[in-house]
Design brief:
Length: 73
């Protein structure tokens, strides 16, 4: 699949500079940026869901020092 994107001259210069700095094509730079963003947003969503499940469970956390005492460490 291919697509086109309109950039200002300044945006294109910045993108070209980034791609050149990393020795990758402009297409690869955009592909990496897109998938890094998707992965970051996915990770945030998974983390938020896990936290919400934890809060809903009613469980409470405790200081690690209590665990160490319990384990006699």
């Amino acid at each position: 699949m291919s697509f086109s994107i309109r950039l200002t001259d300044e945006e294109k210069a910045l993108a070209d500079s980034y791609a050149k700095l990393h020795s990758i094509s402009l297409a690869e730079a955009f592909k990496r940026a897109l998938f890094e963003r998707i992965e970051d947003e996915y990770d945030i969503t998974v983390g938020e869901d896990a936290y919400n499940d934890y809060v809903k469970s009613g469980k409470k956390s405790r200081p690690a020092s209590e665990l160490w005492k319990e384990l006699d460490l």
